[in-house]
Specification:
Blueprint (H helix, E strand, L loop, with lengths): L11 E2 L1 H8 L9 H12 L2 E6 L2 E6 L2 H10 L4 E3 L1 H11 L8 H11 L5 H6 L1 H12 L8 E2 H18 L7 H19 L12 H27 L6 H7 L10 H32 L1 H14 L14 H13 L6 E5 L3 E3 L2 E3 L4 E4 L1 H4 L19 H4 L20 H16 L2 E5 L7 E4 L1 E4 L4 E6 L8
Parallel strand pairs: 1-2, 3-9
Antiparallel strand pairs: 2-3, 4-6, 5-13, 6-9, 7-8, 10-13, 11-12
Helix pairs in contact: 4-9, 7-8, 7-17, 8-9, 8-12, 9-10, 12-14, 12-17
Length: 458
């Protein structure tokens, strides 16, 4: 194993500091996003934190991120912290499985995310959005994060599982929040008593998991009973056979379904929540968005064919994910000692590729704290180093649903923005919090007002 002298510089956190932080409730611990940014400012884009007896490499350098995530991806596994925190929830689904088993499962799931199949989901996405908008009341404050979560849940259930969960979407959203917070508590910086203590949080997690499992089991049973291929992901997984002709076990089917169910709605919901918050604070951007939507759509619902003519809508989504990437970072652990430049990442160390920091690096994004969608115009986007912007990860383990999420986010933004103006409730705090996704800690409270789109030219 490499000596501590053969690693990049970085901060040192003695074991007594780690023990103190372990004793703190999750919500009172230091802001991990701010810690990552401070480490970058002090030690640069390749740093090594000594956390007790562990070495934790923080990467916000596009070239090194490319090496870890792409060129040498087979030399890394998911980090043990992520495994320990999420495996009790998602099991051995696509998010956490490794090597040949992961490759087999990815191959089985990939056809459901083929671009032709994803395009067929566009109509359902707009229909579900229109259904939710019909329930909105103007001039009444509401949490748009909760509304986007409910909407994204409805869409993933309908498109991925041919199911309708609209009647329980609000409850499922609450359960997902409980599970995400439990996963963060379980991390507890390398060692934890979380799984051994009968705490109220632990009981809430168990109940939440039981409720979601019951819902998904009901969806799976209905699919099995029908015995027909609905063309959705669940039908494909039920019909899939491995090389020996064996079907997927019930446990593995459950793990894949809950992984996609949870991840498939959370990332889109938080992206749209941040987009609404940013638009409300940047009326010049909002005006440009309206001008584009009115010119192309003139008040009618968007279709798949319209997206090619809505480039500014896409720029807004991309810029929202730059400032608030769905995942604040990607974690890995090297399977062997790996040379990276003049340094060595020892086997078993922790590697953290900080998308949050990299997306706010002024070398790649001038005035990084400002909301400037024009960064992602065709001309300017070409100047961004390829791996300086990776909201969905990179390499073989890039998010399998990235195209689905981008299609969904653009259609939902276009559908809602041309019909409503969302204004922030004065005095309500907008605070980012890292819970695997970067969520608005107190939600995004808004008031909706109906707007009248200008008619598109004939």
């Amino acid at each position: 194993m490499a000596s501590p002298q053969n690693v990049p510089p970085g901060p040192v956190y003695p074991m007594w500091v780690i023990r103190l932080m372990q004793a703190m409730p999750f919500k009172t611990r230091p802001d991990s996003m701010q810690v990552a940014m401070d480490t970058f400012k002090r030690f640069g884009d390749f740093a090594c934190m000594r956390v007790g007896h562990k070495l934790v490499f923080q990467i916000s350098n596009p070239e090194i991120a490319h090496q870890v995530l792409v060129t040498q991806a087979d030399q890394f596994h998911k980090d043990d912290l992520i495994n320990r925190s999420l495996r009790p929830i998602t099991g051995n689904g696509l998010l956490l499985s490794e090597d040949d088993f992961w490759r087999k499962q990815r191959k089985l799931a990939q056809p459901a995310f083929h671009h032709k199949r994803i395009e067929a989901y566009a109509t359902a996405m707009v229909e579900e959005t229109e259904r939710v908008l019909a329930t909105w009341q103007t001039d009444q404050p509401f949490n748009v994060m909760a509304e986007m979560t409910k909407l994204a849940l409805n869409i993933v259930a309908r498109t991925m599982f041919s199911a309708d969960v609209s009647d329980v979407a609000a409850r499922v959203s609450q359960l997902a929040s409980v599970l995400l917070e439990a996963a963060n508590n379980r991390v507890a910086l390398f060692t934890t008593l979380y799984d051994l203590l009968p705490t109220p949080n632990k009981r809430q997690e168990k109940q939440a998991l039981q409720e979601i499992d019951a819902l998904l089991s009901q969806i799976i049973r209905k699919h099995r009973a029908r015995g027909t291929d609905n063309g959705d992901l669940l039908s494909m997984l039920l019909a899939a056979k491995d090389e020996d002709g064996n079907s997927m076990s019930d446990q593995q089917l459950r793990d894949e379904v809950i992984t996609i169910f949870l991840a498939g709605h959370e990332t889109t919901a938080v992206t749209l929540a941040w987009a609404w918050a940013l638009l409300a604070q940047n009326p010049d951007v909002e005006a440009k968005l309206w001008a584009e939507l009115d010119s192309v759509l003139g008040g009618r619902p968007p279709t798949l064919a319209d997206l090619a003519n809505l480039p500014y809508t896409e720029m807004i989504i991309k810029e929202a994910m730059r400032l608030y990437p769905p995942a604040g970072g990607l974690t890995r652990t090297p399977l062997t000692d790996i040379q990276v430049g003049e340094y060595v990442m020892p086997k078993g160390s922790n590697v953290f590729v900080s998308t949050h920091v990299m997306h706010r690096d002024p070398r790649y994004f001038p005035e990084p704290e400002k909301f400037i969608p024009e960064r992602f115009s065709k001309e300017r986007e070409a100047d961004i180093p390829r791996y300086a912007y990776i909201p969905f990860g990179a390499g073989p383990r890039i998010c399998i649903g990235n195209a689905f999420a981008m299609l969904e986010a653009r259609l939902l933004l276009a559908t809602i923005a041309q019909r409503f103006k969302l204004s922030l409730v004065e005095g309500h705090p907008i605070v980012p919090e890292l819970l695997f996704t970067i969520r608005p800690k107190y939600g995004v409270q808004v008031v909706a007002k109906v707007r009248q789109p200008a008619l598109a030219p004939a």
